[in-house]
């Protein structure tokens, strides 16, 4: 159905363009080089025959595939991001194609002795006999999320070439800066004009996600008092000890390394301390909204308590919400998950539905009025040198997109 070499060529044409985003930048896109791929994608959408192809001032690329049925079908969308993670270099990517994978170690880089081994990454074994695309061991691959773009582009092309497949209006959008948490920030939901959408940004084949963390960040500042240590009795206040009290008063087992599934946590991400001042950065995560609020309150109460033990305010806290669990927005329209699930089963994929221990652009979009579950794009080991993607998974994801389009039109038939 979907031609393998065509998918490989398309994917390679995207990953070989450096699109690393930069959290320190305040522009959109955060890096100028993201324009290169954004423009390339715009051209390609036009070339395959999409309508209303446009790129805005922030490099968001949008296009429409008009309906080919007479009855009314809600417009649905597919979204993926073209930036790659600043966690690891995305320049000079040299993808390697491993055909008919034999289940053994893959030498990514002979000179540097970098090996992708099923001993560490046992998921590899489920792709025995398939074609894998890997890095050369010195960069990330960028399957996150150029696999998603490959799949959306290929599905649109397929639908255009196969008018016998009936579908309603389909919207696509490729965004910058997802990896720095801003992929949805300048997303024009009204202009996009879809009733709901799917991000093609999950990992292994079968993944379907509509639940993610509620997320907040906390910045804590502790004030101390510096005095010559030889004459400090009764005078010095060491902010690092107060910070230590704060840290130790939070539940020690509610941290990322002790939790899984739908268990929430406090995560101390940074300490910066001197006698005079100590700063702590935390992130707070919980799928459950009530527990999430309770976690924030626990921190605020702790700050009050510590302050009450001193004759003046020694510790201050600022908590900012970052994103929320999209479940709240998706549950009232559960048919959008059901359609994706049904589409997977129709192309012989067992859906893996589980809560994301993180966030997605889809969670922000859901709260901006565009309910947006996440579907697998097929890659593994994102944000590092061991990233890889099976071509067969990209083909399956492409088929899922085509099926979702087809099923949606069918569901709304009079
Ligand atoms: Zn991604």
Helix segment tally: 10
Bound molecules: zinc ion
**Mean pLDDT value:** 97
Beta-strand segment tally: 17
* Sequence of strands across the biggest β-sheet: 1-2-8-3-9-16-10-15
The CATH class of the largest domain: Alpha Beta
Rg value: 24 Å
Please name the fourth-level CATH homologous superfamily of the largest domain.
Zn peptidases
Number of domains: 2
Shape: globular
Unreliable spans = none
CATH architecture descriptor text of the largest domain:
3-Layer(aba) Sandwich
**CATH topology type of the largest domain:** Aminopeptidase
Largest sheet data:
8 strands, mixed
User: Level of helix content?
Assistant: 25-40%
What does this structure look like?
- This protein has 414 residues and is α+β, with helices and mostly antiparallel strands.
- It has two domains: 4-211 and 325-411, Aminopeptidase; 214-323, Alpha-Beta Plaits (2-Layer Sandwich), CATH 3.30.70.
- The protein contains ten helices and 17 strands.
- It has helices spanning 4-15, 34-48, 143-161, 189-192, 239-249, 289-308, 327-330, 335-346, 361-367, 391-411; strands at 51-55, 61-65, 76-81, 96-98, 106-109, 114-116, 132-134, 170-175, 196-202, 207-209, 214-223, 265-273, 277-286, 315-323, 352-353, 374-376, 388-390.
- Strands 1-2-8-3-9-16-10-15 form an eight-stranded mixed β-sheet, with helices on one face. The protein has a four-stranded antiparallel β-sheet with strand order 12-13-11-14. A three-stranded antiparallel β-sheet has the order 4-7-17.
- Helix 1 (4-15) packs across helix 3 (143-161) and helix 8 (335-346) crosses helix 10.
- It is globular and about 85 Å long.
- The chain starts with a helix and ends with a helix.
- The mean pLDDT is 97.
- It binds zinc ion.
- Residues 81, 144-145, 178, 201 line the site of zinc ion.
